[in-house]
Every structure is written in C-alpha cells, then in structure tokens.
Amino acid sequence: MHNNRLGCFTATGIIATFITLFAIVGFAFASGSEMFSAGDLNAQAGDAHGGITAHAQITECSACHASPIGAETMADRCAACHTDIAAQMKDVAKLHGAIMQKGALACRDCHPEHRGKTASLTEMGENSFPHEVLGFSLKGHQLTATGAAFSCQDCHQEDITTFAPDTCDSCHRQMDIAFTQTHVLAFGTDCLACHDGVDTFGSDFAHSGFTFKLDGKHADVTCTKCHLDARTLADLQSAPQDCYSCHKQDDEHAGDFGTDCAACHNPTNWEDATFDHNLSVFKLEGEHAEVKCEQCHVNNVFKGTPQDCYSCHQKDDEHNGEFGTDCAACHTPNDWEGATFDHNLSNFPLTGAHVNVTCEDCHKNGQFKGLDTTCVTCHAEPTEHAGEFGTDCVACHTTTAWTPATFNGDHTFPMDHGESGISSCATCHPAGYKTYTCYGCHEHNESNISSKHREEGISNFENCMECHADGREHDD
Q: CA end-to-end span of the chain, whole Å?
C-alpha cells in the first residue's frame, strides 16, 4: 500500500487554503473590518487626552493596539495618552503606583474595553487590589454578615469610584444592631473617619499603647466619657489627658491643692489618697509624720494653713512666751523635750564653768525672760570682801575659775612697793580690804626702820600712812 507522507500539503490542499484565505480577506474588505472588532468602545465622556474625551472617538485600532512584532506594548500606548496616570505609576504612594508595585498588572487587567458604549471602564475581576493604599484595609472584611465573600459591589455598588455612606451601618446592624445604634449615636455615621478596616480603633484597640493608660477604674469607663462628641481621629486624639478636666466637679479641695490630682490620688481608688508632704514647703519630719491631717488641716482647710510652730504649740509653751514664738530655735520635731538652746546667741554667752551649769540653776521656776545677768545674782559677795569691792565681780574674777582672782582696779598703793615680794592681798590687808597695814613687812621698832627715820627723829610708827599715803617715801 502506498503511504502519502505529505498529508495536507498536497496540490489539492494547498489550492483549498488559498481559496479560504481569499474569501476571508474579501469578506473583511467588504464588511469594513468589523469581523475583527471585539465590540463597541466606551462612549462615556471624561477628561480630554489628546483631544479625545471618550474611547468611542478613536477610529484607528493602532491608536491603542501596538504591532505584535514591535517592542511597544498596549500599556505603553495607554501611558502615552493618559499622562497623569503614567505619572502616578512612578509614585508608590499613589494608587496606580502601588498597584504596579504590588502586582505589575497591565492596564487592561482592570480597565477592559469593547464591552459597549455604557459599560464600566473599571473591572477588578479576580485581580488583587491594594485596598489599604486608600486608607482602608480589607483584612478585616473578608466575609459579609451572611458569611459570603465580599465583592466590590457590596460596598461600591455599580461605581467602583464611589462609596455608599450607609454601607457600614446597614451591614453592621445585621451583626449587632444594639451596639451599632449606640455607636452611631455616640460617634456619628462617618465610620471611615476613624476606622481603617483593621480595627486600629476598634474592639481590639489597646489604650495601653498610648500615653494615657486605662488603669484601675479607668478601664471600666465608656469611651464617650472622655471622648464626648468625637467624630474624627483628630477629635479622639484631642481628648484631655489630665485628671482635672474630668474630675474638677469632684474636687473637694476647691482648687486649694492645684490641679495635679495624681500627686495624691490614683485611678484604682479615688478615696485612698496619699499626699507626699515632703514635696510641699512644710516637710513632715520626726513626730510630725505621725500627726493626722485633720489636726493641722481643720475642717479640710489646706491652703493657708500656718506653718510656724507656735500656731500649733502655743498651748504647750511652758515658757509663757518669754522665749518668743520661734520654737525651732530650741526644739525639733524629733523630740519636743530634747530642746537645745544655743546660749551663745543670747546676750549672755556661756563660757568657762558656766557651760556646765544646768538651766534650772539660773532659770528657776521656768523663768527665762527678764533675768538679771549680773554676777551677784548668782554669786553672793563672799564675806572676805566685806562689801568693800562692790558687785563688779569680773573686775577680778573670770568664768574659767573663781579663784585665783586678779585685781584689775586702780590700786593707789604701788603693788611693787619695796619689791618686798608681796604674795597675797592679806599681807597688807589682814583684817579687810578697806584697811591695810605696813607692819606685815615693816616691823615697828627702831632696828627695822630706815636711817632717815632715825635722822629725822621719828619715833611714832603706829600709822605709816600719815607720812606715806601713796606708799612712797615722804620728802617733807
């Protein structure tokens, strides 16, 4: 049997092929190339591009369809006409730039043509649209209230460029009508003003990530308590974060403690307040730390409370005001009884042996004010003075030691008289200081008197002062 290896490439086959091609070309020529058209172009008017306001005005296919054997693509033809979109495609922050960055889609993947004069020019179909670029993510909107997958028409209806204002409300009422009604009354119907599709400000919103954390009883407060009449994110973020803005009406102190409530109060228990008094001018030291607030702040009066000791301790003043009102000069809050007075600050400094004298030795019966500071008040004149030296004890004595004493007065009789080595006052004043005798050194006999006395024939030696009043030799 003969086997024909040429198949269709026979003379008859080749002739049939040419006849078919001729018929197709002839029909196309006779019909004006309508057999190659996919359908009418869109006739909806838009922005003018190169003098064209609608695709239906384009008469040449080559205006959009590039040659299959060239390097240029249809997308290049689109960009050449729609220059504004071409600029967006180079900016990832813009819608078309984000689309190109995400999936490198061609223009016709989302904008099909030849579907009729009134057909939509935007059709996403199965393409992945970066919805979050528009400020609303679809991550939290995968299924409708009925459990069906979302389609673009569910929110945008027939026009992908619009969004129906009641879309959120109508859908969420099917899920929780009570919550939706309350939420709309509190924050309005413009859901997109606050929500971004991933519940940044939704039920999973974490207030702890912000400066004002919801601790204690604040965690149970409704949003509208602080965010009253908020309609936008700016309204939510502008809510005051200080205590006083909300708790002013609860201020029992009438502003006396200022507006920093957190200095004493905490959100766990408003009544359980703790005030750090050491932050104030009057610090609570020693026994003051144990005093109840009401003892100083009578009738809850805090501002203007006296800070001087005497205002509280006047009733405890055993000095009857004789030491003035500056209690802190002697007393401390650690121990009221353990008082220390710096006597050197007074007009009677304690020196020498006076340092060891007890307060009671001078301040008898608790008397401090008006005491006589002269020596004789405490140191009665000794009998040996016989009242002859007066009351100016410091003329001879010091506080270091009462004896020995040194007389610093005007001694009319020379103390170096005769260089006799007088050792004590009693040598000349054996019976008292108002009288004196020379016979302690000069015996009254002729063998002990000077030659001048013998020459002058003086024999009366009973009163030397008749001739020697100043202790010197008498020339007359």
A: 202
